[in-house]
Amino acid sequence: MSRRILIVDDEPNIVLSLEYLMKKEGFETAVAVDGDDALSQAAEFTPDLILLDVMMPKKSGFEVCQALRANPAMAATKIIMLTAKGREAEVAKGLALGADAYVTKPFSTKDLVLLIKSHLA
Amino acid sequence: MIQHGVGLRLIQALVGGDIVIRSRLKAQRLAFLFLMGCFFFNYPLLSVFNQGVDFFGLPSLYVWLMASWLALIVQMAWVVERGD
Amino acid sequence: MLQGWVIVLASFGYLGILFAIAWYADRRADAGRSLISNPMVYALSLGVYCTTWTFYGSVGRAVASGIGYLPIYLGPTLLFALAGFVLVKMIRVAKANRITSIADFVASRYGKSQFLGGLVTVIAVVGVVPYIALQLKAVSNSFAILSSYPEIIMPTMSGAVPLLQDSALYVALILAAFTILFGTRHLDATERHEGMVAAIAVESIVKLVAFLAVGVFVVWGVHEGVGDIFTRAYAVPEISSRLATADSPAAYGTWGTLIFLSLFAALLLPRQFQIAVVENVDVSHLSRAVWMFPLYLFLINLFVLPVALAGLLHFQGGGVDADTFVLTLPMAHQQEALALFVYIGGLSAATGMVIVETIALSTMVCNDLVMPLLLRVPQLGLAERTDFTGLLLGIRRGAIAIILGLGYLYFRVAGEAYALVSIGLISFAAVAQFAPVVIGGLFWKGGTRDGALAGLAAGFVLWTYTLLLPSFAKSGWLPDGFIAHGLFGIELLRPQHLLGLTGLDEITHSLVWSLLVNLGFYIGVSLQRAPNMREARQATLFVGGTEAADIPRWRSSAGVADLLPLAARFIGLEKAQVAFASHARERGLKGFEELPADARLVNFAESLLAGAIGSASSRAMVASVVTEEPLGIAEVMNILDEASQVRSYAREVEEKSLELTRATAELREANAQLRQLDRMKDDFISTVSHELRTPLTSIRAFSEMLQEDPKIDLTQRSRFLGIIVNETVRLSRLISQILDLAKLESGRAEWTVEAVDVGEMLSDAVDSLAVLFEEKHVKLEIEPCESGLIVLADCDRLIQVMVNLLSNALKFAPADTGYVKVGAGGTASEVRVYVSDNGPGIPIEDQKLIFDKFQQGAGTSELLTEKPQGTGLGLPISRQIIEYFHGRLWVESAPGSVTRFVFTLPRQARDNDANSK
Questions:
Q1: A84/A53 Cα distance (integer angstroms)
Q2: Which CATH class is domain A4-120?
Q3: Which of A10, A31, A105, A107 is the mutation pick for testing C, counting most C CBs within 10 A?
Q4: How many CA atoms lie within 13 A of B60 on its CB side?
Q5: pLDDT tens-digit profile of C132-185?
Q6: What is the DSSP string of C109-141?
Q7: Which of A98, C158, C653, C737 is 20 to 30 A removed from C365 (C-alpha atoms)?
Q8: DSSP track, C530-553
C-alpha cells in the first residue's frame, strides 16, 4: 500500500509542483491550502507524512503543527515543515513544536524526495 | 638692564612656554632672540663699542646698533617664516 | 611758491583719499571680503606707533642726545620677539572674551570690575590726551613753517595765534569728524573698524616713504653719502661732541629704561592695544608682523642721524628748531614738492595716531566710565530704556569730540611749555603702569581686583607726583618750590629725588618708583586673600588660555525672551536676532526660538553685549535680567557675595541633576526607538526574503522536474514552462517594486513636477489597461468629469498609481459580471479621483492593513477564496506617491457593497494659458 502524503501550502504553483513530484514517486497525495483545511484533511486523510508550509492564511504552519502533535492519533505522522523564512529562530521553533524536519524554500526536489523517503523508511 | 632676563625666566616659569606662535620651538627661538637683543642693545656690550673708534668714518656705536638691530630683525624673520 | 591754499588743498586732498580708502574697506568688510585680513596690512597698521614724535621728533632727539632716539624703537622690536609668549596669548584671550579695549581687558581679568575699568580709563585719558595735543601742535607748526616758504621762520608761540586762525583747531575739527564717521559708524559686537585700519596702513606707508625721501635727498642729493655727512660733522667740534654718547652707568641706565619703557608702550598704549589686539583679524597675522613691524621701525629710523647732522651743518648758528629739520632741510634747498610731501607725511603720522587713539579712548570712556555711571543713576531710568544703540553711539561720538577738544585745549594752554614737549615719554610712563596688572594677569592666577586697584592707584599717584606735577611746575603752572625742596619742604619728598634717590634721570627715577610700588601693591594686596570665585574664573580664562572658555560664567539661567530684548537694546533688534540665530545654529537648533534657557545662553548673551558695552557693564546688565531684578547695581552686586554664590551653586547642582535625569530618560527612549526600528527592519527583510523565495521555489521545483524527467509529455511540459515564465515575471516585478518603494521611502526618488490635467491622465491610464479588462470581460468606464482639474505632480507617477488601483479593481472584480468605474471631481482646493469596483469588498478591520507592505487583504479575509495575485506593494507605493504631493489615499468599502479607492491632491489654479483659451 502506498504511503499517503498531505501537501499544505497556499501557493498554487508550489502545490502543483509538490503534487506532481509526490505522485511520480508513487505516493498518494491530498492538498490543503490553509491551516484549517490542513487540520481537517489530516483527520480525514490520515497521511503518513505532512509537507507543511509555515506562512499561510488563517492558521500558520506552527499552529497546525502544534495542534497535530497535541492529538495522540497523529503521533506517528511525520511532519516536514517548509518555509521561505530561513531564520535560525524559526527552524528552532519548528523543531521544538514537534516537526521532524525543516526545509527552506527554494529546495532541491531530489533532496526533498530523499528526505521524505528516509522519514518514511 | 637685567629686568629683561628675569622677566623672561619668570614668564617661562609661569607658562612653561605653552603659548606659541605656531610651535613651541618657534616661540622659544624668538625668546632666545629677545635675550640676544637685550644683550646686544645694553650695557656692557654698548660700552665696548662706545670707545670713540670709527668704522669707515662712522661712529662704531651707531654702526653696531643699526647692524645688530637689522641682524636681529632678519633672524626673527627667518625663525617665523621657515618651517620647523 | 607754496601758497597757503595749496597746502590746505593738499591736506584736504590727502584726507579725502584716506576717507575713500576707509569707506571702501568698510564696504568690503560689510560684503564679507575683508580688505585688511592680511598680515602685511596688520604689520603696517601697527606703524601707528610712529607719530609726529617719531616723524619730526626723532631728528630733534638725535640732535639733543646722539643715538638717544633709538631705544624707543629697540623696545618694540624686543616686544615682538616675545610675541609668541605675550601677544599671541593676549589676542587669543581678548578674542575669546570679546575685549574692546585695554580698560576692558583689565576690568574683565579681575572679575569684571567696573571700578577697575574706570581707573584704567582715567589713567589712559590723563596720560594720553597731552600726547594728542602734541600731534595737533606738530601739524599746526609744520603748516605754519611750510606756508612761509621760501623763508624759514619758526612759528610764534602756538597759543598766541587767534583761535579762528589756528590751523590746529581745524585739524582737530576735521579729525573729530573723520573719527566719528569711521569710529562710530555702527555698533559692532566685535568693536572692530576695518575702514580705519585700512586707512592707518596707508598712512604708515605714506609717512615712511616721505621720511625715506627726505633721507635719500639729504644723504645723496645734498651730500655725497652718509660717510660725507659724518666726516663734515666731525670737522665741527660743536657737532662732533653731540655724537658721543656718555659712557657712564647713568647713561646706560637711562638707555635701558627707555628700551624697557617703549617695550611696554608698544603693547599698552591704547592705540597700540586697539590695533594689535582689538583690530587683529586673525592671530596668525602676528607671525608676519613679528619681523615686518620691527623692520618698519628700522627703516623709518635709518636716516634720522644723517638728517640730524645735515641739519646741524646747514643751520649752524641755530635759529631753526631741530624738530623741524625734516621739513626745513628740503625747504632750505628749494625742494617745494618734497617739502609738501614731508608735510603730508607728518600729517599722516599725526592723523593716524589721533584717530586710533581717540577711538580707543572713546570706547573706554563710553564702556568703562560713562555707561557704568549712567546705569548707576536710577533717576535716569536707563534700565527701562528699550533702545540703547543711539545712546551708545551718542556717547562715543561725544567722547571723541570731548577728547579731541581736550587735546586741542591742552595744546592751546601748553603751547611751547615743557609739559607738552616732553609728553612722549611721560605718556609712555603712564601706560607702563598697566604692565603689572596686564602681564601679571596673563600669567599669574593669584591677582585679585583689590590688588590690581591698589597697584594701579599707587603707580598712578607716584607717576603723577614724580613726573606729571614736576612737568607742570617746569611749565610754570605750579610753584616749582616743591621740586627743589620737596612737598611741605620735606627733602625726602622731592618728586625727582624721592627718598633721596639720586643719580637717575627723571623718567628712570619715576619709573623705578612707580613700577616698584605698583608691583608691590599689586602682589602684596592680592596675596591678602584668595581670589573669589569670579576672579578665579576670569583668571582661569585669561591664564589658562582659550581652552578654558567652557568654564561656566553663570550659575543661573534666563531665556531668549529676556536676553534677546536686552541685547537688542544695545546693538539693535536686527543684529541681536542675527547673532542669536547663529548661536542657535552653532548648537544645532533651527532658530533662536528653540534656544533653551540655560547658562550657556546667558554666557553667549553676556559676551555679545560685552562687545558693545564692555565686559563689566555687560555683566551688570545681564545680571539684571537673570536675577529678575529691575536693575539696581546694589542688587546686582549682591549676587557677588559668597552666600548667594553658594545658593546659586546649589541651584546649579540641582539643575544639573535634573538635566541628567532628563537626558537619561531621553537616551532610554531613543534606545527603545532604535530597537523598534531594528526589529521593523528585520521583519521587513524577512518578509521580503519570503516574498522572493516563494516564486523562486516554484521556478526551481519545475525546472528541476523538467530537467530530471525528459519523458514528461508535451502539454505538461509547456504548462510547467508557462508557470516558470509567470513566476519569473512575478519575481522581477517584485524586485522592481521593492526598489521603487525603498527609493520613495528614503526620499531619493526622482520627480518631474509639472501641471497635470487629471482628466487626460485618467484616460491615459485607462487606455493602457483596456486590453486586460476586455480579456477578463470586466466593464471599465470613465465617468464624465469637469475639465481643467489641474494638479501639480509627476504625471508618470500618477499614472502608476492609477494603473495600480485599476489592476487591483480588475483583480477582485468578478469575471463577466464585473464592472469598474473611474471618475474625478474637484472642490476649490482639491481634486478628488476615485476607482470603484463591484468586487467582494474589504472588511473594516482590513482597510488600514492593506496599505501595509506585503498585506494583500487576504490575511484574515473570509471573502477571498484563493490567494490574490500581486506583490502586496502596490498600495504602499501608491500611498507614498500621493502623500509626496500632499494628498491622501484611502479606501471606502464594506463587504458586499462597492469598493472605492479615493485619492485627493491639492488643486492648482488654472494656469494662464488655459484661462485665455
A1: 9
A2: alpha beta
A3: A105
A4: 11
A5: 988 988 888 888 888 887 777 777 655 566 777 777 888 888 888 888 887 777
A6: HTTS-HHHHHHHHHHHHHHHHHHHHHHHHHHHH
A7: C158
A8: ---HHHHHHHHHHHS-GGGGGS-S
At B15, is the pLDDT very low, low, confident or very high (cuts 50, 70, 90)?
Answer: very low
CB–CB contact C249 B43 (8 Å): yes
Task: Dig out the grid coordinates for C130 from the structure.
Answer: 597731552
- Is the preceding peptide bond at A106 cis, omega within 30 degrees of 0? yes
CA distance C227 to chain B (A): 6
C-alpha cell at C262: 617703549
Contact list in B for residue C239 (CB cut-off 8 A) is none
Q: Report the complex ipTM.
A: 0.90
Query: What are the tens digits of pLDDT across the range C233-259?
Result: 888 888 877 776 677 777 888 888 899
Gap from B53 CA to chain C (nearest CA, Å):
11
At position C896, the amino acid (one-letter code) is G
- CA–CA gap between residue A103 and residue A80 (Å, rounded): 7
Place of cell 540703547: C388
For chains B and A, tell me whether 3 or more CB atom pairs sit within 8 A of each other. no
Shortest distance between the Cα of B71 and any Cα of chain C, in A, equals 10
Q: Chain B interface, mutation test: which of C223, C288, C290, most B Cβ atoms within 10 Å?
A: C290
C230 and B19: CB-CB below 8 Å? no
Q: How far apart are the C-alpha atoms of C77 and C293, rounded to whole Å?
A: 8
**Chain C partners within 8 Å of A7 (Cβ):** none
SS3 of C515, please? helix
Homologous superfamily of C754-916 in CATH?
Histidine kinase-like ATPase, C-terminal domain (3.30.565.10)
> Are the CB atoms for C429 and C467 separated by under 8 Å?
yes
Sorted by where each begins, the domain ranges of chain C are 4-434, 552-640, 657-746, 754-916
A25, exposed or middle or buried, with CB in 10 Å at 0-12, 13-18, 19+?
A: middle
Report the residue from B27, B56, B80 with minimal CB separation from C291: B80
- Cα C629 off chain centre by: 30
C443-461 per-position pLDDT tens digit: 888 899 999 999 999 999 9
The Cα–Cα gap between A52 and A61 comes to: 6
Cell reading at C83? 610675541
CA–CA separation, C127 vs C125, rounded Å?
5
- Mapped onto helix, strand or coil, the DSSP state of residue C789 is coil
Cβ count within 10 A of residue C249: 11
Rounded-to-integer distance, Cα C334 and Cα C331, Å: 5
Q: Do C820 and C813 touch, CB atoms closer than 8 A?
A: yes
Q: Which three cell numbers stand for residue C621?
A: 546688565
CATH class of the domain defined by C657-746: mainly alpha
What's phi and psi for A2, nearest 5 deg?
A: -75, 150
Residues in chain B with CB shorter than 8 Å from the CB of C295 are 73, 77
Superfamily of domain C4-434: Sodium/glucose cotransporter (1.20.1730.10)
CA nearest neighbour of C327 among C136, C130, C138: C138
For cell 534700565, the residue is C383
> Which of C78, C92, C292, C511 should be substituted to probe chain B, the one whose Cβ sees the most B Cβ atoms within 10 Å?
C78
State which H helix or E strand residue C902 sits in: strand C899-906
The 10 Å CB-count burial string (b at 16+, else e) for C340-376 is bbbbbbbbbbbbbbbbbbbbbbbbbbbbbbbbbebbb
Looking at chain C, the whole-number percentage of residues with pLDDT higher than 90 is 22
| C537: alpha, beta or left? (left if phi > 0; alpha if psi -120 to 50) | alpha
Q: What are C52's three cell numbers? A: 609726529
Coil vs helix vs strand at C791:
strand
Q: C191: burial class by Cβ within 10 Å (0-12, 13-18, 19+)? A: buried
Tell me whether B41 touches chain C (CB under 8 Å).
Answer: yes
